[in-house]
Amino acid sequence: MYITRRSITRRGAVASLPFAFVSALAAVIVPEGSARASGFLTDQFGSDQGQPALANTYSVYFNPGALAGMHGTEITVDGVLYARSLDYNRSASALSPSGGVAQGNPTYTDANTGQATLFNVLAAPFAGFATDFGGSKFRLGLAAYVPFGGAVSWGKNSAYSNSTIAPGAYDGPQRWSTISASTSSIYSTLAGAYRFDKARLGIGVSFSVIDTTLADTRARNADGSDDVTVNGQPAEGRSYFNVSGVQVGAAAGVYWDATADGALRIGASYTSQPNFGAMRLSGNFALTATGPNPTPADLLQQYPDIIRLGAAWRVRPDVEVRLDGNWQRWSHFNSQCIVAPGASCPTDSTGVALASATGVKLDLPRDFKDSYKARLGVGYWVTPETELFASGAWESAPVGKDHEDPLIFDSMRVEGTLGARHAFSKHVYASLSYTYVYLVPLTVNDSAYNNPNNPAPSLSPSTNGSYSSEIYIFDAAVSYRF
Prior knowledge:
This protein is mainly beta. It has helices at residues 17-29, 59-62, 100-103, 106-112; strands at 2-3, 73-90, 114-131, 138-153, 180-196, 201-219, 229-230, 233-234, 238-257, 264-271, 279-287, 295-301, 306-316, 319-328, 335-339, 360-365, 371-383, 386-395, 413-423, 428-444, 465-481.
């Protein structure tokens, strides 16, 4: 999720070297962009090396137990570059006027329907360190990274660049869901593991401090309509919110060398929700049509906890087969609710704020579902120093069709990865990979956002229309081992 070009900055009194490094790096390299795995999960760092059965610095996040499979000390710096295209054609069935007069107005119809496009680029860093303290049974890992994040900035509708009747239409027909937005959750993680040599088993845990920021700009009328004029005068409003907060999280995992020679490794991990449940982000909210702006506000939402499983089998000295998958419990992400400071936001099962709720400024019902991902890959060593790897993956969408919108659009996806990893010496090695993600196009005809039974804070213009998107991901990493 959300706003225009901005730096990721530290909020809250959190002190750690990895956190400071990644915060500074992100402030330099994160431009406007939009890229996500399922939901707002962006854990593409490490490419095919990031999975629970592989022991490396990425294990700090994917499976702290896998640190027990490492030997020596390793430092890794990784950068992921995402590019995303998204096309949305808002249909006439999406028109959501407040009354019958607007429906016959050709300016209203033209300003609120048609094609919207974006092509955004986003970069995100990973920095990690892991050591076995010179051959002990204990392992320590530190890392900073951004597993949740994204940003969008939409193209403009030049036909309305100088309009005096509907100036808001310059921001495009998708503007009722998003004009520009950004979010990031920067994790600063300390992990520890212990190896039981006789059982060839490792267990590990981690603790994270998480700095989350979120900002959003969209078209918004207090009555939830997409009216652009009243009595021939411009009447379209805007909402703005910018919030942040610090959370904590934890993870635990196991790792097993299933064969004495280490040819078959198996890993499993559990990663908690940020704050082990609800996140309360504090900041400001403004609705330009309703009075003094901005006002203090909180955003309430929940991200998923994640269960991961993985296996890697060296079927011969130069070939390894890898299989992993995850269960992302996005069903926690029921709504995004903006409330007065300290207020609650009771909702029904679909994320709609209850009519009895007080202090609710804006509610975005999300009603996400759990999502699942499975990936099968292979590594082939053309020489002992050079590995070529490839994989294919399938992932289900957490967003129900009736809750799709141009900001959170997600659908069933298939992806393919090609990459190479090369050891320049016994200490230095690097990797480079490319992943193509295809999202199955879909058309929405029954948007839940403009349900007239919803109370005003939960009522938004319809998101009916057709959607299509592709994502292109480049990952590069350099590691030093000693």
